[in-house]
Design goal:
mainly alpha
Length: about 400
């Protein structure tokens, strides 16, 4: 972009004034020089050939000044016309100059972006591994899975040893203290301490089987103590259950002795079996309870809870079938059975219409009998008795 550089109006006026001043100064100097020349001529001013007197220097200077004034006026008019034509450009320049003076630079124009569309070639390719390589990778993966599984089992075995050491050592001086002698407790606590030290030194990275052997060795001394503690906790409830079952069967025997209808159908020999079984279990219970009381708590129990539960099952298996034997159903006499069968057949063969007709006929006969004054009272009563018997048989 080219911008026409034009001087502002003020500078043009100053230049014009300077030019006029220089012209006036030259004119004054010329007039002074002429005056000096005229003064030097002895005969004064000479006339022309035609008898006209030549013009004086003052007149010449006046004419030159007029001509200069005319020229300056013309130049001013042309300059004003040009300035009027170029006024918007000058305004733009003034605005630009003012912007520069204020310290603000004009905002640059944003360049236009040219967008070009280009077709991009695309090539697709699938990389596939060979079957041998895939099989090799799957085999390696299987080996890594097995290695991880074995490592987890090894760590679990190690953690089990450590957990058992902490658990049993705390309980030796707590819940398990009455169930082990003081000498055995001190020995076992020393073994537990050595095992703990071994875990953090030599046993830090041992195979799985080593940890399993170590925990099995510890359980030989620790589990009997734990078992005695557990038997002490569960034995009272087992003894109580056996006593309750014996009490139930004693009540049954008492009711049978009182000839209660509920057990009257049971034979005496079978009830003697129940009585014998109850007596044996009661004596066994009393003997085991007394033996357990005489034993110290740090020794193995005289009877285990599992043995008590087994005795309860044996008692119920022998006595329950006898006590819960159902009563036999009472069979009616044969004559009554035959009558019932006939009545059922007759009632089944008759249609509802026939039954209604028979009822109507019976009602009519009764009316006639009432009108006639019941001439045969014995007959009617016997018939009524037969009907009542038949109805009772049907209900039975």
């Amino acid at each position: 972009q080219l911008v026409e550089k034009l001087p502002p109006q003020a500078e043009e006026e100053e230049k014009k004034e300077e030019e006029t001043k220089t012209k006036d100064d030259k004119a004054k100097e010329d007039s002074k020089v002429e005056d000096m020349e005229t003064d030097q001529t002895p005969n004064g001013p000479s006339e022309g050939q035609n008898g006209e007197t030549p013009a004086s220097d003052e007149e010449k200077t006046a004419e030159d000044a007029k001509k200069d004034d005319m020229e300056t006026d013309e130049k001013e008019e042309t300059a004003t016309d040009k300035t009027e034509d170029n006024s918007p450009k000058d305004k733009k320049k003034e605005k630009k100059d003012d912007g520069k003076k204020d310290g603000k630079e004009p905002a640059p124009k944003k360049p236009k972006k040219l967008v070009k569309m280009v077709d991009l070639p695309i090539e697709t390719s699938v990389h596939q591994l060979s079957k041998d390589l895939i099989n090799n990778y799957t085999e390696q993966e299987g080996k890594m899975i097995m290695a991880d599984k074995l490592e987890k089992e090894r760590q679990d075995a190690k953690n089990a040893v450590e957990e058992y050491v902490y658990d049993i050592r705390d309980k030796l001086y707590g819940d398990f203290e009455p169930f082990i002698t003081e000498e055995d407790r001190e020995k076992f606590s020393v073994v537990l301490g050595n095992t703990e030290d071994w875990l953090y030194e030599e046993g830090e990275d041992q195979p799985k089987q080593v940890y399993l052997d170590k925990i099995a060795e510890l359980k030989k001394s620790g589990e009997p103590v734990r078992a005695r503690y557990k038997e002490e906790q569960d034995r009272p409830a087992a003894f109580e259950d056996l006593g309750k079952t014996l009490q139930q069967y004693r009540k049954v025997l008492d009711l049978y002795a009182q000839q209660d209808e509920k057990y009257s159908h049971i034979e005496a020999e079978e009830m003697k079996k129940v009585e014998k079984e109850v007596a044996e279990k009661q004596s066994w219970l009393d003997g085991k309870a007394q033996a357990q009381k005489n034993l110290p708590r740090h020794q193995d129990p005289a009877v285990m809870v599992t043995q008590i539960r087994a005795e309860i099952k044996a008692l119920e298996s022998k006595c329950k079938p006898i006590v819960n034997k159902p009563k036999p159903k009472a069979e009616p006499p044969k004559d009554e059975k035959k009558k019932d069968e006939k009545d059922k057949k007759d009632s089944g063969d008759k249609k509802p219409e026939d039954a209604t007709k028979e009822n109507e006929t019976q009602q009519n006969e009764e009316k006639e009998d009432s009108i006639n004054g019941n001439n045969n009272p014995q007959k009617t009563t016997t018939e009524k008795d037969d009907e009542v018997e038949d109805a009772s048989m049907e209900l039975d």
